[in-house]
Amino acid sequence: MNQVGNASDNVTENLNPVRVITFGTFDVIHIGHLHILERARQLGDYLLVGVSTDQMNFDKKQRYPVYTQNERLEIIRSLRCVDEVFLETSMELKRQYLLDYHADILVMGDDWKGKFDEFMDLCRVEYLPRTPSISTTAVIEKIKIE
Ligand code: C2G
Questions:
Q1: What pLDDT score was predicted for residue 14?
Q2: Pocket of ligand 1 (CB under 6 A)
Q3: So what's the pLDDT on residue 146?
């Protein structure tokens, strides 16, 4: 009885799931990454994460991430709050990703504030506050010093 009730409730709930999408490198994963992914997931029902490729990072920062794209993809995929992952190969493809993955909400940290407003015609765009005092660069520096 209970099971039937739950099953039908789920069907009703999932008729129009809200699809949230976010992007990032997520290198040397830390608590700031986890917190933004958890908050992004809470805004909807299904969280898609575009993990940027090694090449994309090299083109942008002239250095490769510490973890390879496949390692980063696997780690992000394993998180409870993440439903689906894919590789983001270029910043220029963002509009296409939003369309292909039927995104209802684009979430980014507020270091990107205003940068993706052009996509407001396609979906809601939310910039969430970054977790203070933590970054991949800070972690790498700390390891180097200690
Ligand atoms: N973040 C955060 N708090 C921190 C550090 C990062 O909320 N202390 C957020 C960032 O704002 C971003 C996400 O975590 O939304 C991933 O951060 P990065 O791995 O640094 O990725 P980024 O270079 O911002 O994205 O299309 C965007 C690209 O994929 C690169």
A1: 72
A2: 23-26, 32-33, 36, 52, 88, 91, 108-109, 111, 130-131, 134-135
A3: 78
Which atom in ligand 1 lies closest to the alpha carbon of residue 109? 11
CATH fourth-level superfamily of 17-145: HUPs (3.40.50.620)
What does the domain layout of the chain look like in residue ranges?
17-145
Instruction: Tell me the backbone φ, ψ of residue 60, rounded to 5 degrees.
Output: -85, -40
pTM: 0.91
Cα of 17 from ligand 1 centre, angstroms: 25
How confident is residue 54, by pLDDT bands cut at 50, 70 and 90?
Answer: very high
Which amino acid is located at 98 in the chain? L
